[in-house]
Amino acid sequence: MAEPARRPRDAAPAPGSPAWWSAARAAVSPPERGRGRPPRSFETIVSVAADLVDELGVDGVNMRLLAERLETGTATLYRHVTGKDELMVYVLDARMGEIVDAYDASAASPRTWREALERIAFAYRRFLVDHPNVLPLLVGRLPIGPHALTIRERSLAALTERGFSQELAARAFTTLLQYVVGSAVTQAGSPAPDEAAAIRDYYRSLGAAAYPHVTAAAEALTHTPSEAGFVEGLEIVLDGIDRIRRRTARSPAGGRARASRARPAPPA
Description:
With 268 residues, the protein is mainly alpha-helical.
């Protein structure tokens, strides 16, 4: 992980933005000073900060607490980053390295585009299950760090090498991540069992005359999706991608026309 040079706060672009990452990639690491508390490597700082996020959540982490955990001073931290916001960008990208590692864990290359997307989806879901406290970092700004870019590159390559156009590959990847991250956000915000039961009973009390479908689906609407539910939803997403792929393959000109008329999906 390249270490950024410190920049004046008022001149620096927003942490995690394209301009910020461009500057970080081009920056030269400042030399370690010989005086003061013992130095800590940038990788160690990010690793310990990531552990604190897992333990306390993003809001529970501050630079003083991190310095105490590292048994150093806050001045040491500020030699590496301008503040917590910048540090959290690196924490998220470091954690996303686990997705890359999980994807690469299988020695065999994916045999089909569907298998490639399934591998990405399950690796991403495992990352979010293992580190639910990074969700605010993930949804607050589109991650475009080195590991996030590697995930995009591997996914798009798997699709375009198997006949997808670049446009359809990008839409398919974006849709997949929206489903995976969206399901994690929904699950994280699910009510506690007692509250879910109260909501279920409330739905049932509404009466079939006014809300027949809500009343009938009260149990399903208040049930937290299980792993089986995630897999079922993933199949729906992949089936939809496959339908569009087949339709586009049958009529390339029509597929391009439909794509140009469609509202673009948010970036991923």
